[in-house]
Amino acid sequence: MDQQKPSPKIIKSRFNMIAEGVIPQEAFENLQEKHVKIFLTEPDPRKWPPELTHLKKYVPEDTVA
Predict the structure, then answer these.
(1) What's the CA gap between 41 and 14, in Å, rounded?
(2) pTM, entire model
């Protein structure tokens, strides 16, 4: 049997920041879909790839979602 990893859960507060315009759309214009998924699902910004560095300012440093 082929075991699939469950999809990581979306962090609602980050989704809301995008939906409510807290983070401007321009911040996502040059990102690939995989990077947006990482932003929405990886709680620890220290584990983000360099492409997401500019989004760290929207996530409090002491917060792991």
Answers:
(1) 9
(2) 0.81
Residue 38 predicted with pLDDT over 90: yes
Give the DSSP H/E element, type plus range, for residue 33. Answer: helix 33-41
Asked whether the beta carbons of 37 and 14 are under 8 A apart, the reply is no
22-42 core/surface letters (b: 16 or more CB in 10 A; e: else): ebeeeeeeebeeebeebbbeb
Q: What tokens appear for 10 in the block?
A: 């979306």
Which amino acid does the sequence have at 65? A
Q: How far apart are CA 43 and CA 19, in angstroms?
A: 18
pLDDT given for residue 5 in this prediction: 72
